[in-house]
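WARN retry 2 of 3 for item q-0093 after timeout on previous attempt; input resubmitted unchanged.
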Amino acid sequence: MNHQDHVSEKSTTHEDRIPESKMEIFLKKCTKQSEIRYFKRIYRIGDTIYIKSNHQVEQLAQITNIYLYHQENNTIVPLIEVQWFCQAFTLPDSFNKEIFGESEIFLTEQQSILFIDCIMQHFTLYTIDEYENCGSDLTYFSRAKYNTITRQFDPPLEFWRKVCLCDQPHNPDQLYIQCDDCQKWFHPQCVDIQQEQALIIEQFKCNNCQSIKQ
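OK item q-0093 returned
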């Protein structure tokens, strides 16, 4: 993911990291803050925010540090250090995109230092369980971090909650039907039920529960 369009000169990514010595010099000219006010809003370390972008894809980040940079002319420049999220649809094609939700994002190892005016506004980040119960399309959820270099999730995919006979990670955007006996969830197509029927069916027992009853 390329964030160069809105990153300050002191940005750092996995492709172009600030050498430690330069970072130390930079930090000596900074005063760290726990929060900052910008356009009548308070931003704190840990907040999740929208970042201005020239791209159509929304740029999402989490504030990891807030700095007041003291320039030679005695002016102070407010800066934020952020860690970037990547969205599910931007993941490599080697992943099965059907297991990810449309509003699913992953915190990456990529970091940047930005001018404060790059901030657009806050957004709310939910866990997958909170997302299913919030009833809003204008939110994001996350259940793992993603390393863009190793292309690995933390926790790994094999530890994500699985559902259905296909044993795929749960995707809250997909339709599921629950067995009345074992309470497990299934994709309608995996238990030979049409999508339309799944929306109106009042009782359902999976094949395993049916065989136990016989």
